[in-house]
Write a structure and sequence with these properties.
about 130 residues; mainly alpha
């Protein structure tokens, strides 16, 4: 018999909470997307999942403290080695920062490789014509 009143009280608390959350979560998500657009972030990038998300090229350049014009493979490798060593955990550095630096180097290296392959392909196509 005690379950009946307890269930009624529980339902009276749970139903309004669920109703509030059902209205608040989509509104908060829409507001976050709107703020991201104002900050100049692409909406698809802003809506991407947090875990497993790759960093953007501009963020990778910022992490390695490079400008777009300076992003040569040699400069990328030099900055990577410098910052990776400076944030070595055994020297009191940050593993989080080291991982960000590693991912930035990885992304920029992949981008450089893709760019090199495109240039080679364009050279081959120009040679055929």
């Amino acid at each position: 018999m005690a379950i009946g009143p307890f269930a009624r009280i529980l339902a009276q608390v749970v139903v309004p909470v669920v109703a509030v959350l059902a209205r608040a979560l989509p509104s908060a998500y829409a507001q976050a997307l709107q703020n991201a657009r104002k900050a100049g972030v692409d909406a698809t990038e802003a809506a991407a999942p947090v875990f497993g998300k790759r960093i953007s090229r501009s963020e990778a350049l910022q992490i390695l403290n490079l400008a777009e014009k300076e992003a040569t493979p040699e400069a990328i490798q030099k900055q990577f080695e410098r910052y990776f060593a400076a944030n070595d955990v055994s020297k009191g550095g940050s593993f989080y920062l080291q991982s960000k630096i590693y991912r930035a180097n990885e992304l920029l290296s992949e981008f450089q490789e893709e760019k090199r392959k495109e240039e080679q392909q364009q050279t081959k196509e120009a040679g055929k014509e």
